Amino acid sequence: MELLKELLHDPKFQWVGITAIASFVAAGVSLLVGIIGPVITIYNNRKIIATQEKMNEDNFKGNVVSKARIEWIQEVRKKSVDFMSACYNLLDFIDVHHMNENLDAELQKEFFNLKNEVQKNGVLLILYFGPDSNKNNDLIAFLVTSVADTLTHKLILREDKNIILYSRHKVEILKEFLRIYFKAEWKRANGEIADSDVQGYLETEKLYVRIQKICKDMLEEHKEWLDVYYEFLEKKLKQKFETKTS
Q: How far, in Å, CA of 165 to CA of 144, rounded?
């Protein structure tokens, strides 16, 4: 007991003890740092990798969407040119042979082929434009349908010149509208404008606004006609079904 008291009061022993404790603590801290440090590094690395993978995934999706939009624009441009070219060819034929009811066999064949091209290319073009909230696609579909229906009518050669001229004007309107529309879609595909800003961009174009205003009443009348047509068709189909089952 006396020996323990002497050791505790011995300055040399106290210093050695403190040094030993400090060394032990330092070793413990070093060990803890040695364990925690790599764990934190691994966690941070995983977090960085996960973030990078998410960014890569987002970039990949963005590139896929952008590529798809660009391909869509290019394809629809081609279909638009095919349709409008077919319309101009038929309009030129009508101008030359207006009121001529005695076409020979060769001209009748040419006339039939020209009308068929307008009808075929019109249908193919419309299929690219589904309903949209801003009615842009509806307007395009209306213009295409209106022109195609008028020019392919069986009595088109006997129609008033003004009706034929009106159809030519509609083709010009369609051309200008598509030019503005594709410009906006191209900017969206390239990331120059966000999806939510496309309509706002379109409305900065004076010609776009003007065309919308000009065609507003015609588009509404067309929708009313479609409603009446499908109501009539629905009734006919219902009557036919009831007749078969009775």
A: 15
